[in-house]
Amino acid sequence: MPLVDAVWNFFIRPLKEARRVYLYSFVYRQRRICGVLIGVSLLSFMFFSPLHWAAVMHHSIKYGLVWWVDDPQGWKNAEYVMARWRGEDPQKQGIEDGMVLAKRVGCRPGQRLENRGDHYYCDGIFIGAALRAVSRNATIVPFTYSGTVPAGKLFLVGDSSDSYDSRYFGFVGTDQVFGRVIFGIRML
After folding, report:
1. Nearest CA among 99, 127, 105 for reference residue 115
2. How many CA atoms lie within 13 A of 26 on its CB side?
3. What is the pLDDT of residues 166-180, one digit of tens each?
4. 29 and 71 in one domain?
5. CA distance 67 to 27
6. Binning pLDDT at 50, 70 and 90, where does residue 68 land?
7. How far is CA 25 from the centre of its chain?
8. Domain that holds residue 30
9. Are 141 and 91 in contact (CB under 8 A)?
10. Same-domain check for residues 19 and 73
11. Which residues, 6 or more positions from 95, have their beta carbon under 8 angstroms from its beta carbon?
12. Interior/surface letters 65-104, b for 16+ CB within 10 angstroms, e for the rest
């Protein structure tokens, strides 16, 4: 057995260890190259594709990063859209003229919007509830409307219960919507 041990220790073990180190460095190098290629692909997709992207800085919707296309019409309920706010904020909660909003379509023109207390329903389907207080000292008045959504108007809502949306400032004109979100990434 000492001869077998000597052959193993001097010839076979160094070859196996050298092969293991080579394989490790090869796999590591391949992973690094793949990571760089994926990063370059994502960056080129973000900056050179027909899609636009935006980072959503508020917690109004469930996505923190969205990709959207220019599509100013033909939305469905529960679809996310991008809209540009025009005018004055009726509740004085910080929306400024020209600010971009990312919201979900709650109710479209021709659909029946019902306001029962602080709960909102579109064609009998619950779409959200309004809060009466935004902090300990500040109150907010919910938008009250029951009836058919007027032509050229949308009722936009956020995913969060404390989202500032149509539950407070009312309808948004369809001419203010400029895009439809097609992909989003949730952020923690």
Report:
1. 127
2. 6
3. 998 899 999 999 989
4. no
5. 33
6. confident
7. 38
8. 1-49
9. yes
10. no
11. 85, 89, 101, 164, 169
12. ebbbeebeeebeeeebbbbebeeeeebeeebeeeeebbbb
Return all residues near 103 (Cβ < 8 A) that are at least 6 apart: 60, 61, 80, 81, 83, 156, 157, 158, 163, 165, 166, 172
CA atoms within 13 A on the CB side of 106: 30
Note whether 59 and 40 are same-domain residues.
Answer: no
| Residues 81, 164 within the same domain | yes
For residues 57 and 19, membership in a common domain is answered with: no
Same domain as 36, residue 114: no
Kindly state whether residues 58 and 40 are assigned to the same domain.
no
How many structural domains does the chain have?
Answer: 2
